[in-house]
Structure formats: structure tokens, C-alpha cells
Amino acid sequence: MSDVEKTCIFCEIVSRKIPCVKIYEDERTIAFADINPLVGGHSLVIPKTHAVNLMDITPGDLAAVHQSCQRVGAAIMKAFKAPGLAVLQLNGSAAGQTVMHYHVHLIPRLGAKDKIGAFTWPVRAGNPKIIEKNALKIISML
Ligand code: 5GP
Ligand code: ZN
């Protein structure tokens, strides 16, 4: 086990050194309740093997995590009669990632009844030339 894994809170959840409210587990993943839920049912899905972020996780674990998200997400929507589900995943502290072990947030959304103001931003039409220039910048890095 690396030093990072020894000090990683989600690795400690995997190894049961610290408790969690577990919702689902399979060979490669665990889903558990977020300790600071944005709304009732807010859950996290993580790989059992430590990976920092989207760029770091193996393709196999990435697929496994998102298969668990599909299964647990459907259960959350049924359990909370939620017509919507936000699937949120942050990479790097600049994006707001606070736990440096890959995780996906599953957050039930209730539409008009929902008091969460997050995940919305003002719609402003982009400059088509700049949109294309930015796409080319990304394409050059693929
Ligand atoms: P991030 O901002 O990194 O995407 O979110 C990390 C999430 O992990 C936060 O929503 C936070 O509440 C949750 N979290 C942090 N520590 C623990 C913990 O020890 N147990 C559980 N269940 N959730 C945690
Ligand atoms: Zn970890």
C-alpha cells in the first residue's frame, strides 16, 4: 500500500478502517451515503482500488464504477421518487475535488420541488469562431 493510500479516507472506507453507510458493493466498487448530503439519498460510488481522478483510473475500474452508478442511480430515483438524477464527478482542487480518490456523486433531483440551486449557469451564446478555436486546441492534445 502506498503512502497516499494509507492517508486516503476513501481507501480507509474500502478497508473498513473507518465506517460508512454502505449501499452497494461488488468486486471492484462500493457505493455509500455521502456524510454531508446535499439532499436525502446523496450517495458516492468509488473504485476499491485507489485512483486520484478521471485521468488516473483504469478503464476497467472506470467502467465498473459507472455500471454501479447506473444500478445505484436507478435505485435512488425509485427510493426518493426523483424524476431526475445528477451525476457529478470533480477532478482536481480547482474543480472542487476535496477527496483525492475517484468518486462519483449521485444526487436525486426533484425538478420544481428541488431547493438545490447548483448545476445551473446563465445561457450565453458563444462566438462560433472561438468555439471552433477552442475545439481545435483540444483536438491537438488528443
Ligand atoms: P468532492 O468535493 O471531492 O467531489 O466530494 C467529496 C465528498 O466526500 C463530499 O461530498 C464529502 O461530504 C464526502 N466525504 C468526505 N469524507 C467522507 C467520509 O468520511 N465519509 C463519507 N461517507 N463521505 C465523505
Ligand atoms: Zn484512496
List keywords for this structure.
142 residues, alpha+beta, HIT family, subunit A, five-stranded antiparallel beta sheet, 18% strand, binds guanosine-5'-monophosphate, binds zinc ion
What is the correct CATH architecture? Answer: 2-Layer Sandwich
How do the strands line up in the largest sheet?
1-2-3-5-4
Strand % is 15-25%
SSE run: HHEEEHEEH
Record field, number of beta strands: 5
Which regions are unreliable across 5 or more consecutive residues at pLDDT < 50?
none
Portion of residues in helices?
25-40%
Main beta-sheet annotation: 5 strands, antiparallel
Ligand names: guanosine-5'-monophosphate, zinc ion
List the SSEs and their pairings:
Layout: H1 3-6, H2 9-14, E1 22-25, E2 29-33, E3 43-47, H3 59-79, E4 84-88, E5 104-109, H4 128-139
Antiparallel strand pairs: 1-2, 2-3, 3-5, 4-5
